[in-house]
Amino acid sequence: MTSSNFTRLSCIEEITPGVTPGAGNFMGMRWTGESLTGTPQTAQSEEARTDRASGGQVQTGLEVGGDWNFEVSTNATFKAWLRSVMKQSAYAAEVVTAAASLSVTAATGVIAGAGVDFTVFSVGDLVRLEGFGANNGKVVYVTAAASGSLTVAGKLVDEAGGAGRTVRRCEYVEVGADDVTFTIEKAFTKLADKSIVYRGARGDTLSLGFAYGEIATATIGIAATGYETPAALVTQGRTITDPGSTRALNASSDVGLVIQDGAKVGFPIQSLSLELQNNHEPDVNLGNVGPEDYTPGEASIGVTLSAYLKDANWDFMAKKLSQAPVQIAYYAQNEFGGLAVQIPEAQFTFPDPQAGGKNQKVTLELQGTAKAPTAGGSPLRIYWLPALA
Q1: Residue 100 contacts residue 118 (beta carbons within 8 Å)
Q2: Is the pLDDT of residue 115 over 70?
Q3: Are 238 and 204 in contact (CB under 8 A)?
Q4: What is the mean pLDDT of residues 10-14?
């Protein structure tokens, strides 16, 4: 007998999709739940028999995949799988200004430093302040960049110039078209060499949620091609790197900023979530029971936001009728690092705020869909924020 506590998930990135590399370390996967499975597709025999018995069913296909559920923390396994679900083979390189004496003027959002080239950043970038005092580690939204001056939106306080300060645009991934696949082993460690292996596994969907009073959670929906219950563990003789136990992010204290249309949101938010669907369709082939590969479809991106109804968010009523795009950006981090999300243009559709009954707060329940940005670029960017040095 075994239990979920003795179930180990681990994975290794594939070089050739569907083929487990012959060498290299597996990565441990932190999880709160999983539904990975190989489910045969069957057809019932239509043959008539004089004994009235069924001719039985025949396997005609195989669906391989399921969900991987986990709490959001900055571990290497999640970082690798973000590339898969965003379909980008590598993170865009970080950009860091030279260390210099930088000052902050909160009222104008200006970060100033003589001779510092801030034009390495673009309007709309999310950047992090490092080496500062009261503003250290804050992520801000760039509204203008020039030599010697960077104008941003964010939760800033005045700070006199100080040496050794930098501004960093961290690594990020955007919606792409690259296949990043893994071999996953689900091992039942209380049993003797019993495991299930899923090959050619790639991220199909991503759900990322922040709600007040709760730990941030994520689900990656996985689509795979290969399925096996081998006689020996594929990880046998290999190192499985520890996924770590860094503290998970939470929405109550770790969300540092939410930006709407280039300015800090002026109303309280109770929850914020992101949904990405790559809409992979299986490629089938005679002689192959399972999918041979997958073809990605449209990258469908949804965002939902729940907020108390305020004067500051009443303009959403007009925007839902005109379908005027809204820019959304936010970040969450703790001492171990975090994530930042940028959606350049989302169009919202939602029911009117309703008074459900006596003594109930009236809320806006916004539901939006990200569209291709008018100025070009990706409809979704996710930054990976490392721990502060």
Answers
A1: no
A2: yes
A3: no
A4: 98
